[in-house]
C-alpha cells in the first residue's frame, strides 16, 4: 500500500522524518495500540477486530496518558484565550 510517491530521495526522507516526528509526539500507548491493532487486523475478520479493539481499549486506556492528554488540551485552550 502506498499513500504517496516522492520524486527524490531527499523529499522522501523529509516526509519520513516529518511523519516520525508526528508519531513521536503521540501517546506511546496509542502508538503501540495502533500497531498491535493493525497487525491483528491483517489476519482476522472485521467482527474479530471489533472485539479485539473493544477489549484492548477497555484495558489500555486506563492509564495516565488519558489524564495527561485532557490536561494538555485544557492548557492549550486556556492559552488560546489569552
UniProtKB/TrEMBL annotation:
Name the pathway it acts in: Lipid metabolism; fatty acid beta-oxidation
Q: Which UniProt keywords apply?
A: Fatty acid metabolism, Isomerase, Lipid metabolism
What biological process terms from GO does the record include? fatty acid beta-oxidation
Which molecular function terms from Gene Ontology are attached?
A: delta(3,5)-delta(2,4)-dienoyl-CoA isomerase activity
Matches recorded under Gene3D superfamilies: Lyase 2-enoyl-coa Hydratase, Chain A, domain 2
- Which family does the similarity line name? Belongs to the enoyl-CoA hydratase/isomerase family.
Q: What is this protein called?
A: Uncharacterized protein
Amino acid at each position: 500500500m502506498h499513500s504517496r510517491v516522492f520524486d527524490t530521495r531527499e523529499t522522501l526522507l523529509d516526509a519520513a522524518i516529518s511523519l516520525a516526528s508526528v508519531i513521536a509526539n503521540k501517546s506511546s500507548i496509542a502508538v503501540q495500540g495502533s500497531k498491535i491493532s493493525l497487525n491483528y487486523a491483517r489476519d482476522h475478520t472485521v467482527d474479530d477486530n471489533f472485539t479485539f479493539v473493544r477489549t484492548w481499549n477497555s484495558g489500555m486506556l486506563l492509564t495516565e496518558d488519558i489524564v495527561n492528554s485532557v490536561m494538555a488540551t485544557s492548557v492549550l485552550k486556556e492559552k488560546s484565550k489569552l
